[in-house]
Records
---
Amino acid sequence: LSWSDALLLGVFPPIGLEINDSEGHPSSSHQALKGTSKWATSLENLLEDPEGVKRFREFLKKEFSEENVLFWLACEEFKKTQGKKQMQEKAKEIYMTFLSSKASSQVNVEGQSRLSETILETPHPLMFQKLQDQIFNLMKYDSYSRFLKSDIFLNHKKSEEQEENPPEAQTAAKRASRIYNT
């Protein structure tokens, strides 16, 4: 599998698995990122990883803004909804949960961008897109950068690094280095 093929297919092998160039030779310059390394590259990468979403939600809950990522996720799921009846039900659920003035988890979107209940009768997959984009940008330019500096992120990153490089392996490597470099 060449790197360009992997990109096109959205297939990224785990670190350590070889990626070959178009001639079938190992491509050492490209290594797929995973976990916190991938999360740190973009909010999009974070939101594509279930563990990343879990950690981000945990962080947002502490900041009292978990509704933002929940709304974003609900909109992503809504786009996949098939059938007018199911769309109407999900659209109403999203509206009542996140957008109405009586919403239990109201998101902070611009007033004129709010939808009226009448639009719920004729739903379409992208009906929440403008609002979803607002919330995405709010997360991207506000909470995401704080998340990357948070204890939740940093502790997860540290535990990932310890799994990849257990202390006994580091010690053995140091011992070997001392033995062979004397």
Note: Confidence is low (pLDDT under 50) at residues 1-23, 25-31.
---
Amino acid sequence: MLRNALGKIFRFLGYTVQYGCIAHCAFEYLGGIVVCSGPSMEPTIQNSDIVFSENLSRHFYCIRKGDIVIVKSPNDPKSNICKRVIGLEGDKVCTSNPSDFLKSHSYVPKGHVWLEGDNLRNSTDSRCYGPVPYGLIRGRICLKIWPLNDFGFLRASPNGHRFLDD
């Protein structure tokens, strides 16, 4: 009787570890569901929107300008942020705010990306903390799940003029 009970407990623990490993690999390498909060990505992503973030792009270095990414916050490593990639390494980017009279530019250093929120007037982004190391990217948002009336692929940046091709 005791042997039978121990056998069931160990089988249960074995299955739990196996399924835990599978779930970890799925969330780490494939992707997951993310609830976005804050106004920095409005109008593209509203507060409390639910999106799907895929993680393969970051592993294969397939992040491109215009992609919306989930990144470990450079200011608080315990939290994640959601921003749009404006520049990749070597790109020339506008580092000033839209309201600044004189525009300043800089180049994104090797191994970094330049991130900005779509709501330029209410976003803490690379204009505040500078270029972000590529290694902090957690995933690329590819699909909005909730609200259902907005289900689908994400729209283009309302700030497309911020992308420089020089």
Note: The mean pLDDT is 84.
